[in-house]
Fold these 3 entries.
Entry 1:
Amino acid sequence: MNEFGCSLKRGIPMNENEIIQAIVTGNYAHPFSFLGMHKTAQGVVVRVFSPYAEGVTVLSHDMPSSIAFPLEKIHPQGFLSKFFYKNFGQ
C-alpha cells in the first residue's frame, strides 16, 4: 500500500500523478480508494473523475451559510480535485 492506501504497481508505490493517469486510462483496479472525499493528516481532499463534466462544485453545509467550492481540473480528461486544510473555515 502507498500513502493513499492504494495498491502498488508491480510492487512499486505509485505517486499521485501515476494513480490519476491509471484512473483516467481505466487501468486502476480500485479507483474509489482514491476518488471521493478522503481525510489526510493535513485535512480533507476531494477527487472526482468525470470526463464530460464542465465543472464540479462541493457544497459545505457545516458553516453558518452554505458555501460552494469549485474543484480544480488537474487532468484534461476530466480529473478534478480540491484540498481543504484542517483549520479551513475556523
Note: The first strand starts at residue 36 and ends at 39.
Entry 2:
Amino acid sequence: MWYKSITPVYQTGDPGALPGIRSKQGGDVMTLTVIVKNNNVEKAIRTLKKKVLKEGLLKEIKQRQYYEKPSLKRQRKMKENIKRAQKAKKMRERDL
C-alpha cells in the first residue's frame, strides 16, 4: 500500500514526467495531475482540492494515521455500507 511510507518518485518513459507517490515496497503508484493555465494558481489549487476530495485521499490518510483494530475496521465498514445503502434507497424513492 502506498500510505505506509510515502516517497516521491518520477515516472519513467515520459519526457514530462510528473512526481508520483510510491511505497518503498514497490506498491501502487498514484499521481494527481493539475494543469495551471494562464498562471492562475488559485484555480489550480481549487481543482487539486476537488480531485483529492473526490478520491477520498484525506479521509483515508486520517484513518490510516493510527492503527485500527480489525474488529473496529469491520464495524466501520459495516456502518459505511449501511449508510451507502440507505442513501441509494432514498435516491431511488426520490426518482419514482
Note: The chain has three domains: 1-31, 33-65, 67-96.
Entry 3:
Amino acid sequence: MALTNSTNQQHFKVTYHPFTEGETVCNIFWPTSDCQTVSGGVDIYLNNGESKIYVPKSMLAVSNDEETDYQNSEVDYPDFDAFAFDSVNHLQ
C-alpha cells in the first residue's frame, strides 16, 4: 500500500515486499492499466495525492476482458460505493 499527503509527484522503489522477482503486480484501483513486472523492487509513482495497493495480477478477480464487458454492459451491477463504515469500522 502506498499513500501520500502531498500533491507533488512521489516516486519510490520498494525493495522490501512480498512479491517474487519477475512477478506481475497491479494496482487494484487501475487493474488493467497500472501493472508492472517486479524487477529489483516495485516502482511506486503517486500523482496528486493518489493511493495505490499492488497485488499479484493472478489474484485479481477482473481480467481485461471482464472489465471491458462490465464497462460496456447494461447489467445492473451493485453499487459498491453504497457501503459505509462507522467509527469502529463495522459495516452499516
Note: Strands lie at 10-14, 24-27, 35-37, 42-46, 54-56.
